[in-house]
């Protein structure tokens, strides 16, 4: 009898003749959490789709042993019946339905007459949540009532209601706050103590160190190795992931900073649902040529609203003045911003950055499509020459420029969105959380690109939630708190995470 609950042996998977997985192994014991690590495009999500039968038996090679027996599942329903449940990075909840209705969606308890037994469903849901130390959640309220962190916990409760023996968590904390992340990690520890096994996929290696018992690393679709977490430091995991030493994660490079390029004066944004509330309140700042200006602050501080207003993308009422090289601009849409030389990579690439069903290349050229159009026709040769150069520049991993961008990993999608916003050759580039959901290797490439761009004279505004990134990359840091500008700091040896955080949480009247 095998010691392992799950064994994946020599798994292979190809798309259009291109191998996405080439002999991958993975082993998980009951009550064990295995951290699955690798760069974007390494094959982690593909591997989990094989395991959960998103890709059914017969479409891949190798062997899966489940509880010592070969598993040949043809559908997700079969793997869930066996006890394998996957929680995807994008939550699969219906916001308008109640918590209980979401947990038992498609498996609702019935009365003798065949109707849904709502009383029993609510009682069962509340008991399940209480057992998971989530009893504060009201199962009769719509899911939309709860924040992202609690929705992630509800998704886990939904998985466990299916009697999960193995829980696959794919980037579960990518959009969570630190406090929400702490709650989720505590829940995973509780599940381990009850015998539930977990495969935990995350680019946040400090979470892997905290929660995993062992680590399996894959690179470019191949198995690199596995080891107990106690034997690995974070630099060791990074080295296995990227195949090289990355002792300096923030490759700061000296670059000249010139005169003021952009001035934002009195930017104010009103809340979409409550116009009496100001999400951004009279914020003014300047940006110099060749400067990387970091914007820091807590979640909900108004950072995204501020940069969206500058780009003409804020959907609510907003006001203020913009001056580019001394000339006053009136920007009412992103199209006008791009025309004036201001481009932005949005925070939510899936919602605002890509057209999922469109090819990678066509996503990249969307921002400059007019450049290839003559007499209403597109010069495809010129367009594909531009696409090829863009893909090579950012090393975007794709089987073909025509492959739908939705099929790419999150990091490669992000590179494509950045490429799209570089095509208009902007004077000012705004990056809102450009490394969210991106592995350490891709982060490094994005940082290197930023320094190359400012050396060429471009100016960059970037929003980062992770303070080490803010300090590792910025020339100057603006701190936003509750919609107000609470600090403007030169990033020298005196600037620390503590100074930034103190400014973020201290109201102006107290600071004064």
Automatic annotation (TrEMBL):
It comes from Neoasaia chiangmaiensis. It is a peripheral membrane protein. GO terms for molecular function: ABC-type D-xylose transporter activity; ATP binding; ATP hydrolysis activity. CDD domains: ABC_Carb_Monos_I, ABC_Carb_Monos_II. InterPro entries: AAA+_ATPase, ABC_carbohydrate_import_ATPase, ABC_transporter-like_ATP-bd, ABC_transporter-like_CS, ABC_transptr_XylG, P-loop_NTPase. Its main location: membrane. GO terms for cellular component: plasma membrane. Pfam families: ABC_tran. This is D-xylose ABC transporter ATP-binding protein. It is found in: Cell membrane.
